[in-house]
Specification:
Radius of gyration: 22 Å
CATH topology of the largest domain: Multidrug-efflux Transporter Regulator, Chain: A, Domain 2
Number of domains: 2
Helix content: 55-70%
Oligomer: single chain
Low-confidence stretches: none
Strand order of the largest sheet: 1-2
Strand content: under 5%
């Protein structure tokens, strides 16, 4: 069994983050007779999973849904996040294409360039 401070240090987060995760339902932690949180191996692994999901971009409500007992509900959330990330990648690639063109553009001002103008209208 570990204390909240030990788990926070192990995961590299502040204790208040673990309390918040518990408050929103992303983490389940046992309490001792005095009300202190006690993290068993299952709770630590659950916290580690929450952290991983947060680091890949899921919001806390998405994390809670992704950790739902019903696998189909969890998969739906993860699939939606994958689609959102793929859309973001496509937008970033378009931005890179535009910026590469802007660097090489022969026009003094980008608004004089038909290619640059078409990029802005497509965005």
């Amino acid at each position: 069994m570990k204390t909240i401070g030990e788990v926070a240090a192990e995961l590299g987060v502040e204790a208040h983050v673990l309390r918040h995760w518990e408050q929103v339902g992303a983490l389940t932690v046992r309490r001792d007779g005095n009300g202190y949180r006690l993290y068993d191996d299952t709770a630590v692994e659950q916290a580690r999973t929450v952290l991983k999901l947060r680091r890949v971009g899921l919001s806390l409500p998405e994390v809670v849904a992704a950790m739902a007992p019903k696998k189909s509900a969890a998969q739906a959330v993860v699939r939606a996040k994958i689609a959102a990330l793929e859309d973001e990648i496509a937008r970033r690639r378009q931005a890179i294409t535009f910026l590469r063109h802007a660097v090489e553009c022969r026009h003094r001002y980008l608004d004089e360039c038909p290619d640059c103008s078409s990029f802005v209208s497509d965005a």
